[in-house]
Amino acid sequence: MVTGYGPLQRVLRVWLPVGFFMLVALLPFYWMAIASLKPNSELYNPNISSLIVYHPTLKHYVDLLTQTGFLRWTWNTMLVSVISTAISLVLGSMLAYPLARMRFAGASLMAMAVAAVYLVPQPLLFLPLADIINRLHLGNTLTSVILTYPTMLVPFCAWLLLGYFKTVPKDLEEAARIDGASRLQTMRRIFLPLCTPGFISAGIFAFTLSQNEFLYALIFLTKSSVRTVPVGVISELIRGDVFYWGQLMAGALLGSIPVAIIYSFFVEHYVAGLTSGAVKG
Amino acid sequence: MTIRTEPLAGLAQRAPRGWSLSTWLDRESVFSWLMMSLPILFLAGFVGYPFFYGILLSLENRPVAQPGTFIGLKNFITDFHDPIFWQVAINTFVYTGAATLLKMVGGLGLALAMNQNFRMKNLVRAFLLLPFIVPTVLSTVAWMWMLDPAFSVVNRLLIELGVPPPGPSWLGNPILAMCSIIVINTWRGLPFYGITLLAGLQTVPPELYEAATIDGASGWQRFRFVTLPLLKPIIMIVTLFSVIFTFADFQLVYVLTHGGPQNATQLFATYAFDIGMSAGQLGLGASVALAMLPALGILIVAMTLYMRRA
After folding, report:
1. Do A108 and B127 touch (CB under 8 A)?
2. What is the pTM (predicted TM-score) of this model?
């Protein structure tokens, strides 16, 4: 907004604050990374600097991959995230399209209901849901989380897509209608293909939220073979008072990588979605 | 809602007389409700039903895996006489208030710092958002290591700076534990605040600043009377989102402190979990969770009305 500082002023006004925020944001990841590479003798030695690795080792990673169910948890997490994201995008657009385009009695009430449902936080629902999942005999199945993650993702996707759909011009749809296409054809063949960026934004968020989900997975999945990464890491690498720090750090780092990769590919879509005013923080 | 006024003249002329399935299906209301029926059924079954079932549970004495008996408001009366419940309420308000305030001030700072021209801005923005996208549980594990009583990296640095060993017990002291969860929640949520506000800042027309400068406004005055009023709607939305989800936070506290020491960091969600899942008293746990509803309800209604207006 203002240009033409001298070099010193520039350092003070730009790089000092930006550098400070970068440092605060990234330092925990740095510590996570170096702790995962340290042999136990260094990890638990109070006499050497904690900021440097002297003898880096991949032992914690090897142990994590061979002695725990980490690969299984990763597979479970990916499977659950992908399926619940897909379900949520489909159901979300089925809600968002009529709300964005059609005139019918109750439309604004429905839009408000979607927003309200989106704002209902998980802790309000987890106890009754635990009982319902129990009665459906879905405990310890991935189905339990595939069914419950969309409870938060569908209203979210609907809300984000609703905002996106409204920005798409109506001309093409109107032309299709005049050419005799039914509403369903217009939506599927003409409208939805125009909305790929909106779907990418909503999809990345839904995927990130599924990877982040913890409460439902913690309650519904108690067997190691069906656990997701966050639950597996917390419940199996911490046993009582024993913390397997090296493996914990390796697990935390590896578990963050899928999200980080997807995020790095679509960061612009992510920011666009973030600033559309539909994301909780 | 957008209102469509232009009539589809061509279509109306070609519409056949009388009733046919395809024209009926093409009516806006019929098409809309049919299209929405599946997601509505899903949400009614997995959000609506659990919500009301939760209210029913809160009125029952319901040990896990046993049929419940209706006991009216007894669970709520138990909560009312439970000193921990009131501590939980205070904790939740302190946690939400402090974390939201820090995120708001810090986020505004971040947005102002980022709203300048410098190289690699997009890359910096991508890195700044990392705390927000990495799964909370996993980044909290890193913080747990940094604050560990025996091997705390933070304490080692403090000791090198002259603090007497072993240094503060971040998760063992009630007040420090509360401060720790507030700081970590802020660390995670601040980028979200900052980047959203940055997008808002970028929509402020530069002419306004120029006009203010010509009128003799100082840097602070430009911020106070130009930037802040224009950002207000975005700040409102982000804050309400943040308040709702900080108020109902679970993951961070569950992983870092389990609500301890001596319930000093216990929040509504973790306390409801302890009672409902760990102690197996589903009814009493549901009543604790529902105790969030009055405060949350006001926020949600305010937010929904605000979003509809925006």
Report:
1. no
2. 0.88
